[in-house]
Amino acid sequence: MEIRITECRRTIDCEYCHKPIELHSPIIIGKNWFVYNKGTASEAHRYYIHHWHAKDASGSCCWLEQGLYVLLIAEKRIETRGGKTLLLPIDQRKQRLKLLQRHARLVQMLKEEMEKLATDATTSRPVGSWDRVALLGQRLEELKALIQPLGGVPSSWLDKSEQSAQAPPYLEESPGLDISVNLALVEHIT
User: Fold this and answer.
1) Of 25, 82, 149, 156, which has fewest CB within 10 angstroms of its CB?
2) Which backbone phi and psi does 46 adopt, to 5 degrees?
3) Which of 14, 134, 124 minimizes the C-alpha distance to 65?
């Protein structure tokens, strides 16, 4: 929406208070642009023009009052994108982030090692080491045990059989937090 203030060149009614805006008095003009017929090369536009008092005789600003009223009655949206935030203290959040980063590094190293194990077309010999792959897999399993007290193991780390057996982390009692906080979160989610 474009908003501008200018001098009124013709008498017109205010959209908010429905009183006339006098000639040569300040006026707020708002223009809403709408695009229709999107499938063509030349997109057509429509617009709707709003007129409000900049300041009426009583000293109120109609356009500001209408904007505040719209904000007041507007439906409050709850953010639903992304995963549920864990209620953890800051130091535990930092520890969890470090473990998540370490897991990402280990997965990247594992992918590189598996690519090395692919046979070379000229020598037909594997370049990588199965021992290193096993060591990286063992480290990944150790990370699961380390991250469990810090909000639970992320579902992307688990196999299909492990995912069904694990309870969601917001249902378990987090260390350092009052259980009533977790129960409030569960009530909010359901």
Assistant:
1) 82
2) -125, 155
3) 14
pLDDT tens series, the chain, 190 aa: 788 888 888 888 988 888 888 888 888 888 887 776 666 656 667 778 888 888 767 777 877 887 788 788 887 777 778 777 778 888 999 999 999 999 999 999 998 888 887 765 556 666 777 888 889 989 999 999 998 888 888 888 887 666 555 555 544 554 554 444 444 544 545 4
In angstroms, how far is CA 177 from the centroid of its own chain? Answer: 25
Closest CA to 140 of 83, 183, 169, 102: 102
How many Å apart are CA 6 and CA 31, to the nearest integer? Answer: 13
Domain map (residue ranges) of the chain? 2-73, 90-189
Tokens read off for 151: 């909000």
The Cα 110–Cα 126 span in angstroms is: 15
Structure tokens at 143: 């990370």
